[in-house]
Amino acid sequence: MGIQGEDEATVLSSSQSLLSHRHKGYQTLDPSYEWNVEIDVKGQVDTGDSVDDKFSIHKLMQYTGPGWLMAIAYLDPGNLESDLQSGAVAGCKLLWLLFWSHAAGLAMQILSARLGVVTQNHLAQLIRKNYSRSSSTAIWLFTQMAIIGSDIQEIIGTAIAIKIIFGTRLWVGVLITASDTFLFMWLQQYGVRKIEIFFMTLIGIMIACFWIEMFVSKPNIEMILKGILIPQIPKEATVQAVGMVGAVIMPHNMFLHSALVMSRNIGTVPTDKKKKEANYYFAIESALALFISYLINLAIVVVFAQVFYKPGQALMELPGLYDASEVLSKTLGKNAKYFWALGLLAAGQSSTMTGTMAGQYVVEGFLGAIFKKQWHRIALTRSIALIPSMLVAVLAVDHFDTMGEFLNVLQSLCLPTAIIPILKLTASSQIMTHTFKNSRITNYVCWMISFIVIGFNVYLFFNYLQELHWPPYAVLFSIIYFSFVLYLIWIPLEVSETKESRLDSEEESSL
Q1: Which residues cross the membrane (predicted)?
Q2: Which helix (H) or strand (E) segment is 46 a member of?
């Protein structure tokens, strides 16, 4: 589809989206507001008619894109730092945990995609509609904190890459990174397909850079296979193991994925067959994207296992993103640090842009149409993250590793406020219909995965409090926070019953 065709499809889908919102009772702050076609990606890519049950490469290509943008969050600088530190402390022994972390992430991302496909609304909109005002406001605040914390790591990581390549001061790199806002605004005018190709190119750069470094480091294949197949967590690597799980799944990424899948046009009133087709190909695409993400993360763990890890010897100080470049240069050759910096630059630049997009959907979904113009939304979401990042770059540059630990803890605290609503929304026959709601087995498995991931994050949080010697304000916050998480698990959704959902409920009760 050409640019003109994409624009026509966008305008058509915008009208349909507006009608759908009015029909379903969504309220905006301005009654005269019309959906902004620059940010709304609904229906930009035509997926054609449903085909037979046979697998189709052509169909997969039509649905390919959202999963790759989603996978970028698994490759942001915070994840890369977690990878290099786990490799430095434990060698290849945590590769199995890295794999299962990605598998857990895949389960949550598939639920996010299904939610968007079936309801044709993204997660932020559904939370706003199906939770009380106070609950949705609290969830929004946690989500916004997660975006800020993630964006700080991404912006600082990009600035570090610029410093390695050009030797600039860190705060200069932060300012340069801010220019991605204008690049992103420019890309959005050409349709979602162009954005997807751009981000897939950046992932390709990461694959090339990090795998070149892995081959240059001459890894031990037997140790890699043992690390993947034999579960073990060395005592000295407990914190790194927990951090690896906590850093993989980003709360705001689930909001983003549920919105991006709507870029595929599956019809004004999609049939169940068409929705099943979309869910099927989005699941395959997400699995492929996260497998590539796993291979990139694996390469980083292996490289730093080769460079840093010495069996039986404890590291006196954990390496950071900048320290890593110097060590690579000394051990693998002077050009190694430039491959590292280029891969880090691609990771940071792509993740800051997807973070910007996620921020727009979160603001729009929770707060409504408070801004009519796209650049107003981008300016707000970028400023929210850019100002704290600049303060970190100027005032806390010598303590960034400590700041990174705090930001990882912040991400872990925000994760339940995204996972719990997804599990409850996708289990509701009133929202997903009886055909697409989670089966009992899916519910059990996903809740179990969620409790495991949340449990790891709780361990990370309490370990951090122990390092701070349990300050009273932190203990008070912990009590309030865990009470709210239990409240989210306990309270039912506030779903307005429709004729279709009532029939589904009656059908379910008769089974």
Answers
A1: 94-117, 138-162, 168-186, 198-217, 237-260, 280-309, 379-400, 406-423, 444-462, 474-493
A2: strand 45-46
